[in-house]
Write a structure and sequence with these properties.
Elements (H helix, E strand, L loop, with lengths): L7 H4 L3 H15 L3 E6 L4 H4 L4 E3 L1 H10 L5 E5 L2 H10 L5 E3 L15 H16 L2 H4 L3 E6 L4 H9 L3 E3 L4 H11 L2 E5 L2 H10 L7 E4 L13 H6 L2 E4 L11 H10 L4 E4 L5 H6 L2 E2 L2 H9 L6 E5 L2 H10 L4 E4 L15 H12 L13 H15 L1
Parallel strand pairs: 1-2, 1-3, 3-4, 5-6, 5-7, 7-9, 8-9, 10-11, 10-12, 12-13
Length: about 375
């Protein structure tokens, strides 16, 4: 999957110039086309989405569509991979800009995870071949397809921010310990809420050389119930305890609501913690006149604010917390892929090969069965 260079004719266009051409291409492609827009997309792009939502929900929506030949996913790479895994073979999934990745997903690659798995297995059972039977791998949906395949092959499951608790609970009924990647914060915050003490968790740094146990002592690994990968979301990492304190001082009685990808300290200080869907529902259903400071991506926060004019809604860090990789999807790339589809040319297709797709599907299906 090689990124093709945006042709000069598109590269120099203003956003406003693209809009009528995008609308015209959508109309001509009709039911053969489905455009998906993740919540973090910029307004200039999401206005053209047939459906908006979170990553896994949109992938399921694509799989449920029996008419569309082309699924144009305005999101990031791992999202398009999930859509390709779940949709039919004859459906084509396209990411308008293949360089729209996810920094969190990039913090864990297959080689690193396999090396960690072998080292962890050796600690628990004296051999990589049998040690894995005591450890359950769980990967957040924000991960590459080959990591989902690794999890599926080793009996584990994928999770989302909405269902992390039941997935972790299931994992710990199946095996003694849990390896959770790539986001340490979601794993930690979910486990603490379930009553698992912090002293039963360690963080595994994949950049440490073999024999250093991810930056831990062998004894610490032996005692650990949950091994958290050293990964994070660059957006949610920006929210700090001082931001919470500042809002409480300036706006007494304000509600602080944050995503569980935020740090443990911020989550502990918040009034509400939840997934994107939970944040949307909580604020939309809140009484008029209430005030909210929101710890998640700025495009979503701005959209919530406009949808709730009877409430005060602000980002916990106003104006700066956007997902830069998601922001790579722009109207010019969207127009380019649509006008190529009109000419029966496919650019920027995302395709997950076998057997990776089948093994990843096992992990996703396991998640659905559990939650």
């Amino acid at each position: 999957m090689l990124q093709q260079v945006l042709p000069p004719g598109y590269f120099g266009m203003s956003d406003e110039e693209t809009y009528p051409r995008i609308q015209a291409a959508r109309k001509r492609l009709g039911s053969r086309l489905m455009i998906l827009g993740h919540h973090y997309q910029r307004d200039e792009v999401i206005q053209f989405a047939d459906l908006t939502g979170d990553s896994f929900g949109l992938s399921r929506d694509a799989a449920a569509n029996r008419d569309a030949n082309y699924i144009v996913f305005c999101g990031v790479h791992f999202m398009a991979e999930s859509a390709d895994i779940l949709t039919r073979d004859e459906q084509v999934v396209i990411l308008p800009d293949l360089e729209a990745g996810c920094s969190m997903a990039d913090m864990a690659d297959l080689d690193q995870v396999e090396d960690a798995w072998d080292e962890i297995s050796e600690v628990y059972a004296g051999g990589a071949s049998s040690g894995g039977e005591t450890v359950m791998p769980i990967t957040y949906i924000n991960s590459a397809a080959n990591l989902k395949a690794f999890v599926g092959e080793h009996g584990g499951a994928v999770c989302t921010s909405s269902n992390a608790a039941p997935i972790i609970r299931w994992a710990l009924t199946q095996r003694e310990r849990l390896l959770f990647f790539p986001d340490q914060h979601l794993g930690r915050n979910t486990a603490v809420k379930m009553g698992i003490p912090l002293d039963q968790m360690i963080v595994w740094d994949p950049r440490r050389p073999p024999g250093e146990y991810g930056g831990n002592t062998r004894e610490a690994v032996e005692r650990a119930k949950i091994i958290l990968w050293r990964g994070h979301c660059q957006v949610h990492q920006r929210f700090l305890p001082e931001h919470v304190r500042s809002f409480r001082e300036k706006f007494p009685g304000i509600n602080i609501i944050v995503h569980p990808e935020c740090s443990y300290e911020v989550v502990q200080m918040a009034d509400h913690v939840g997934s994107t869907a939970s944040i949307l529902k909580t604020i939309n259903q809140a009484p008029a006149g209430t005030s909210w400071a929101v710890g998640t991506e700025i495009h979503l926060v701005d959209r919530i604010r406009r949808a709730n004019p009877d409430k005060f809604v602000s980002s916990l860090v106003p104006g700066v917390c956007l997902c830069s990789t998601m922001n790579r999807i722009d109207p010019q790339h969207l127009l380019w892929v649509l006008e190529n589809l009109e000419k029966d040319r496919i650019v920027n297709q995302v395709r997950v090969p076998e057997p990776v797709a089948s093994r990843a599907r096992e992990a996703l299906d396991r998640m659905l069965a559990i939650s």
